[in-house]
TrEMBL record:
The lineage of its organism: Bacteria, Pseudomonadati, Pseudomonadota, Gammaproteobacteria, Pasteurellales. Residues 47-187 form the Phosphoribosyltransferase domain. It comes from the Bacteria. This is Phosphoribosyltransferase domain-containing protein. Pfam families: UPRTase. InterPro entries: PRTase-like, PRTase_dom. It comes from Actinobacillus equuli.
Amino acid sequence: MGIFILQEHLADNESHWIERCKSSSMETGYRLRQAHYALGVHMGSAIYTTNPNQSKFAVWILMRAGLPFGLGIADGLEEQGCDVAVYFIDKQIDNDTLASVNTRTIILADAVINSGKSIERICTILPEIVKQSMIVATTVMPSNAVSQFEHFNLMTVRVSSNQYQGAKVNTIQNGKGPDTGDRLFNTL
């Protein structure tokens, strides 16, 4: 268990993807989805490298903000020759998704972890043995939330000293900032 920070392993010419993802970049739509996807591909390669004895994965994508990042992870793993199944999680986890824990290493992918409530909601229904091998992957999380994930295999693109609640706003102020899902899909 521990934390892997992808930013520490990216080449200098790849850091523009991270800059594009930051709320302060004001990027939305295609260019933001492209950045999330590209970072997902890099994360998929990192997951493969750090889990050399695994070849079967199930990417559980938290909808909707996790979609580009999660698909990038799946494609990054498939590029390495892994067998990858992709599942989409909205409010409920269906039986097919739950059954994937029996034969695959689970990667729970979300664009942003703020409070961790979405991750915890899913983990409450999983057996302890699954949680111990599961990988939680995200593009960013606040530094003050890292400690609550020390019992997980956590892989993040970066850790930020900033934290705010996603809302339908265009600027960061009063503890609120542009919702990542809204930025990704131009619904601000």
